[in-house]
Amino acid sequence: MIQTEPIYKKVALIGTGAMGRGIAQICAQAGSNVYLFDASEGAALNAKKGVLEQWDKLLQKSKITQTQHSSYAARLIVSEQLSELCEADLVIEAIVERLDVKKELFIQLESIVSSSCALVTNTSSLSVTTIAACLKAPARFAGYHFFNPVPLMRVVEVIAGLKTDPSLCERLKAYALQMGHTPVDAKDTPGFIVNHAGRGYITEALRIASESVCDFATMDRILRDQAGFKLGPFELMDLTALDVSHPVMESIYDQYYQEARYRPTYITAQRLAAGVLGKKVGEGFYKYSQGKQELVPEPPPPKLTKFPPVWVSTRAARRASLLQMLKDFGVTIETAAAPSNEALCIVAPLGLDVTTVAVLERLDPARTVGIDLLFPDESTKRRVIATNPVTRDDMREAAHALFASDGKSVSVIRDSGGFITQRVIAHIVNIASDMCQQGICSPEDLNTAVVLGLGYPLGPLQFGDQLGPDNVLETLLNLQTVYGDQRYRPSPWLRRRGALGVSLMQKEN
Length: 509
Ligand SMILES: NC(=O)c1ccc[n+]([C@@H]2O[C@H](COP(=O)([O-])OP(=O)(O)OC[C@H]3O[C@@H](n4cnc5c(N)ncnc54)[C@H](O)[C@@H]3O)[C@@H](O)[C@H]2O)c1
Fold this sequence. Notes:
43% of the residues lie in helices and 13% in strands. It contains 20 helices and 16 strands.
């Protein structure tokens, strides 16, 4: 393989903790000489040892050759003094997340490095423009937001401050490609792309939990099996730990001046105060023994031999496939305009709750149950049915047994506008749409950053296009009706594309 010359030949990495050492590894792999500096004694040397161990492992697995191993290792240099970084052509800072400390460091660096040296911060939550404001030459300053663990999370947000020279971002993007990472352009806004787009999943799940719609484990199962997320929101929070994720939720909410879409709930604040942080302390939303999550058993479906006749709302989502499903189950289907007095009434709304639909359609609420058919049934591993406050036990059991009769998993939840998956997906798509409306990033970069940075099965706008922007719009408008909350107001980006019947990727000239 021909090794091209690295765009930056001498890179200084300041702060060699979790992020700094990962960034150092990929810079050296890109062919740069990397100077490691840390304020804490011995930390840079430790980081060098840590990176060497990573390369040892890659060598053992034959992922790199002995020649590569030796050349990478020769490129990692420990620096004892900040002044030794004077020849760097790029400085990447990955020190403590404090504005005052970062500013102090960059002011010092300005008097050490040459005027052509690029200065870059790996901040995750501070404004790049605000850090740059302390510099004499803010045009040479930008953000490079990597993700942990850096060598495996192959995406980096490249952030221009208000005064950053655009050509610097172009060079940083080209260098990111040399490091094997996919660069995405992000406007200097709170949370940049990934941490901003990630608000939808977690905060909506917490909001649903705060309405006692179902327990944490049920919600995790539903979002894994219906929408294809690798981890449910509560498993994810346990892994990230609430001392990290709760402050991010509050910070983004406050930085956007209490925008309702990002509103956190008391649930995580209280758990943080109690020290119930997640996996690392052995207890979070789940309990852990020896690092393994204790399984929460799922209640089996009731077994019934006789079912009431079933009537399906004429306004049900995916009505034809729902009727076919019921036919395959072998149950009696009523076809009259209104249900008989014995019928189990099935509704399948988008965004509305079962109560509202039962009242609107003049159905007997005691015999009415909802099913979420936002996603086609054949594309999911689980069905979700919802009762309303007066649904009779025998009708709930009949619906549960019926929809489980082909062996598919079924979760039963309390009433919720848009069930669970509809609410969460619509919220994710809406936030992503508004990010495009605000010009934070391009629709393409948004999808790429979320898939690579958060591991979602699809980018948010791809989710929206797959389900139909008009369906997502209808879900949100109905959610707003049910809850009367500004949180669900559709972004103009989504509203216009949904109304026009075009893709959410459609840009405006
Ligand atoms: N950990 C993550 O998941 C993650 C992801 C993206 C961005 N970030 C950002 O990266 C930066 C570093 O995070 P981390 O998780 O690697 O932290 P860390 O605590 O693992 O490492 C920080 C290192 O910086 C050193 N340090 C502190 N002040 C210094 C100074 N003034 N000069 C030189 N060295 C100094 C510390 O000794 C420590 O070794 C932060 O800005 C953080 O917000 C972190």
